[in-house]
Amino acid sequence: MRCAVGTGPCAETVHAAKFAKSVACAANVLFNPPSPEVAISHAPGQDQLQKVRCYTLYYPGGRVYAGDTEGHLIALALVSHRNGRYSYTLEGNGFAAGGLDTAHALLEAIASQLTAEYVEAQFHHSPDLAKADVFDLTAGPHLNIRLPIF
């Protein structure tokens, strides 16, 4: 039930009513162990097939990066950490928020602002950083997320 950066597609068809229990991403893990996931809420009584995309958010420090299941990596948000609080600005639309106590809360807050369409647009318009050997993505927390495709 974890999505991870790897190879292969992860846009899966799932039954929305069993979403939290039945989605598993068909991806090979490259460099991250399992981590907490963000639950995607659905309208009460919603009972239909739903496609999702899987991503991993990384915070090695300074920026939050997003990885997809095909091994691509982009910068997603600029982060500042002052007086024990995290704040961020999304690079694509300039949305900003702050006052977050932990790095994990930072990743969850960013994840709550994302849609599959927005993230896909960022992958399309941002340089792929996967081949730049300057990132140690294991240096900080990461969060696996699934975003519904509408």
List the helices and strands and how they pair.
Layout (H helix, E strand, L loop, with lengths): L11 E4 L3 H4 L14 E2 L10 E13 L1 E6 L4 E10 L2 E6 L5 E5 L2 H10 L3 H10 L16 E8 L1
Parallel strand pairs: 2-8
Antiparallel strand pairs: 1-3, 3-4, 3-8, 4-5, 5-6, 6-7
Overview in brief:
This protein is of the alpha+beta class and 150 residues long.
Structure description:
With 150 residues, the protein is of the alpha+beta class. It has one domain (12-149). Helices cover 16% and strands 36% of the residues. The protein has 3 helices and 8 strands; from the N terminus they run E-H-E-E-E-E-E-E-H-H-E. Strands 1, 2, 3, 4, 5, 6, 7 and 8 form an 8-stranded mixed β-sheet that branches. Strand 3 and strand 4 form a beta hairpin. It is globular. It starts with 11 loop residues before the first strand and ends with a strand.
